[in-house]
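HUMAN:
Sorry, I am quite new to this. Are you able to go through these amino acid letters and fold codes? The numbers rather puzzle me.
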Amino acid sequence: MVHHIPSPARIDETVDRLCSLDDMHHVCPERRHEGEPVLTNVSVKRIVELASGLLFPGFFNDSIESPSVMRSMLTLACHELRGLLTHQITAGLCFADSTCSTPLRELHERAVEAADSLIESLPSLRSILDTDIDATYLGDPAATSTHEVLVCYPGIRATISHRIAHRLLQLEVPIIPRMISEQAHSATGIDIHPGASIGERFVIDHGTGVVIGATAIIGKNVKLYQGVTLGARSFVTDDSNNPVKGIPRHPIIGDDVVIYSNSTILGRITIGSGAIIGGNLWVTRDVAPGEKLVQARPKI
């Protein structure tokens, strides 16, 4: 069998076409000449790794043997995180500025401010994540320690990523929060949109197949089991029959709610505080506080 090998001239022609800014529809040709940065999954993954290591030193980075070593390592990590965040947030802002009307320098300044704000918020993020870890440990008889929960449980890994992504979204950072959530989705099987608002002491038990939509609001001390969906029931469409964006369409879950495996909660409905939703249910109506929904027993 004869393999055809392109001639150097044909390769050069192809590379010229691939490098043509006129054919790159997802970058701004004007800013690309200024050195417009590009979003990369590798850099975003590293951002989450660095932030996780800063939140929980020694669990997601090298072991730390003394307080002085910890301070040095965390200082270096903060500087690396700041640089990566600034570069990637600038890239995201460029990507979102479809008119290419904002100067690259201005976007860079906005990125620096957002990067600093995220780093400054890490202590408060750790405080709320500590409640998630404690609630997971206390609620799972199979958990032997909070350390095990932190390093082994996919629900906690997904929640760490979500709280970082949600904070970036609050800082009006485009694209990157969704990249973080999708990386966590790929790693854990848990799909949490960064727009979802989630209270403290949040627990995802097992977690595979959990889906939480963009406009979902979840209260404090809520526990979800595997396969739970907090989704939209229907979409309002525009004149072209395309879904209208930004309309609240996902459930509101009150405090102290438990939703068991494979239940689907759809639409902008409210699950009242203290309610229990049994497994394998399809819920499209409000549920009163303290109400218990279970499958009806078959009549014999």
